């Protein structure tokens, strides 16, 4: 059924925008260099050495990090692009962005939430250009707990736009005169340990993703967890924590991301388990589904009392909602009530769920093509768990490309989680997405 919805929805996706949206986009780009409402109240952080770190093929730069050292201690600064400066609520562009819900990253193209000409220019935190941002300064104690934090509108200049590989190299080499990134990494590693001590479950695993290069050839990108990826991820979680705490303290309805603790998981046990594909699959299967709610509640997997996603307002509409609520409160303007916010989130829920389904099913489609076109008659995989033993639905990991697949597995063998063997593709149904494979023999 998911695959049917995927094929139907894919035909409705639009890379282009209406003439009204394009006209507004051009207008906003023209206005971006003007002095706009609230600009005089922004603090100038252009003196900070600021780093934007992302994948080589990223389209928009919407977050960056800095370090500030003074006689009063060390602060981490986290900066997020500020699209609210240019995009009014209920404009043609805003309504279209809400209708899309988020940018969609497909194998061969990107379907943007906001016109690319705007998101890649006036909104993007490109290097060497003064940009408006929402920034948070955070001071951590020796254990990684938040000692103090402040949220402000700001001006920043990104000094370095780095790939994750570049950032890893800079952290490792720690060159004289450019030690900020190593120090930020150490501080955020401390913060990560604090979250684990407070119940966070850290699942790290190499993962693969299909994509097409500029020549139209399908490739597989293998993503490994590295220092820079952990650092950026922790910075984004920290920003979401600071904003959520601010919302709770000031009774601001926000789209809080919540997740109740699972009774099937004991924190004391999960801390001791290594990140293997088998244990990760078992833990993920036991986790309760996360929810978006207008009232704060714990996010057990992150080890936090409250959390919001706030760091991608150019490509995720829920983050843009957070920015609007935050700025309205800071400006003394009317904020949405919890009921109004809940109604808006209900409208977004279907769009976001469908987007997730589209990307997941498209990756599955390309995985099936990879299985069909594999030059080897038999393909190595790792058995992770039975999703349904009676229906013989198995979760398999194809180690070569670091991608998992739920499929029907024909075998009479007793399989232990983690066992490695070879399979042969028997059939696949493009309409339903069902895949049938048979176990050949142990490797």
Task: Give a written overview of the molecule.
- By secondary structure, this protein is an alpha+beta fold.
- It folds into 2 domains: 2-367, no CATH class; 374-442, Nucleic acid-binding proteins (OB fold (Dihydrolipoamide Acetyltransferase, E2P), Beta Barrel).
- The protein has 11 helices and 18 strands.
- It has helices at residues 2-10, 19-31, 92-100, 116-119, 164-173, 180-197, 227-249, 267-270, 277-286, 317-330, 338-373; strands spanning 43-44, 50-54, 63-70, 73-81, 104-105, 110-111, 130-140, 146-157, 160-163, 207-212, 218-223, 256-258, 291-293, 379-388, 393-398, 403-410, 420-428, 435-442.
- The strands form 5 sheets. It has a 7-stranded mixed β-sheet. It has a 5-stranded mixed β-barrel with strand order 14-15-16-18-17. Strands 5-6 form a two-stranded antiparallel ribbon.
- A hairpin with a 6-residue loop joins β17 and β18.
- α6 (180-197) crosses α7.
- Residues 1-11 and 266-272 have low confidence and may be disordered.
The helix fraction, in percent, is 25-40%
- Strand sequence of the main sheet, in spatial order? 1-8-7-4-3-2-9
* CA-CA gap between termini: 34 Å
Runs in which pLDDT lies below 50 for 5 or more consecutive residues are: 1-11, 266-272
The average pLDDT score comes to 92
Number of domains: 2
Structural class: alpha+beta
Radius of gyration: 23 Å
How many E-type strands?
18
Largest sheet properties: 7 strands, mixed
Order of helices and strands: HHEEEEHEEHEEEHHEEHEHHEHHEEEEE
Number of helices: 11
What percentage of amino acids are in beta strands? 25-35%
The shape, in one word, is: globular
């Amino acid at each position: 059924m998911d695959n049917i919805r995927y094929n139907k929805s894919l035909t409705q996706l639009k890379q282009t925008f209406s003439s009204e949206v394009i006209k507004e986009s051009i207008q906003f780009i023209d206005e971006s260099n003007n002095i706009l409402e609230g600009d005089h109240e922004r603090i100038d952080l252009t003196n900070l050495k600021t780093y934007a770190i992302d994948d080589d093929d990223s389209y928009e730069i919407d977050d960056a990090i800095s370090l500030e050292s003074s006689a009063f201690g060390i602060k981490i600064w986290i900066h997020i692009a500020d699209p609210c400066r240019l995009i009014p609520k209920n404009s043609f562009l805003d309504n279209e962005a809400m209708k899309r819900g988020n940018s969609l990253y497909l194998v061969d193209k990107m379907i943007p939430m906001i016109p690319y000409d705007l998101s890649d220019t006036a909104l993007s935190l490109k290097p060497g250009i003064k940009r408006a941002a929402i920034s948070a300064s955070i001071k951590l104690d020796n254990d990684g707990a938040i000692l103090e934090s402040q949220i402000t509108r700001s001006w920043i200049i990104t000094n370095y736009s780095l790939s994750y590989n570049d950032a890893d190299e800079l952290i490792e080499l720690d060159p004289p005169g450019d030690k900020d990134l190593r120090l930020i990494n150490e501080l955020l590693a401390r913060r990560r340990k604090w979250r684990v001590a407070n119940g966070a479950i850290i699942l790290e695993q190499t993962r693969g993703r299909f994509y097409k290069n500029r020549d139209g050839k399908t490739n597989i990108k293998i993503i490994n967890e590295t220092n820079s990826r952990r650092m950026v991820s922790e910075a984004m979680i920290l920003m979401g924590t600071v904003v959520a705490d601010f919302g709770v303290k000031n009774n601001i309805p926000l789209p809080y991301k919540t997740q109740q603790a699972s009774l099937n998981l004991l924190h004391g046990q999960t801390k001791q388990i290594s990140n293997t594909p088998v244990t990760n699959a078992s833990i993920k299967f036991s986790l309760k589904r996360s929810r978006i709610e207008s009232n704060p509640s714990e996010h057990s997997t992150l080890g936090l009392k409250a959390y919001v996603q706030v760091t991608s307002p150019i490509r995720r509409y829920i983050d843009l909602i957070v920015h609007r609520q935050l700025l309205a409160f800071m400006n003394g303007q009317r904020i949405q009530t919890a009921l109004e916010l809940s109604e808006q989130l209900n409208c977004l829920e279907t769009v976001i769920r469908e987007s997730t389904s589209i990307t997941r099913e498209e990756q599955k489609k390309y995985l099936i093509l990879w299985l069909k076109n594999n030059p080897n008659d038999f393909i190595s995989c790792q058995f992770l768990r039975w999703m349904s033993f009676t229906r013989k639905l198995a979760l398999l990991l194809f180690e070569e490309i670091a991608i998992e697949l739920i499929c029907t597995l024909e075998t009479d063998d007793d399989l232990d989680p983690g066992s490695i063997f070879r399979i042969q593709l028997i059939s696949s149904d493009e309409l339903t997405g069902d895949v049938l494979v048979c176990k050949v023999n142990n490797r």
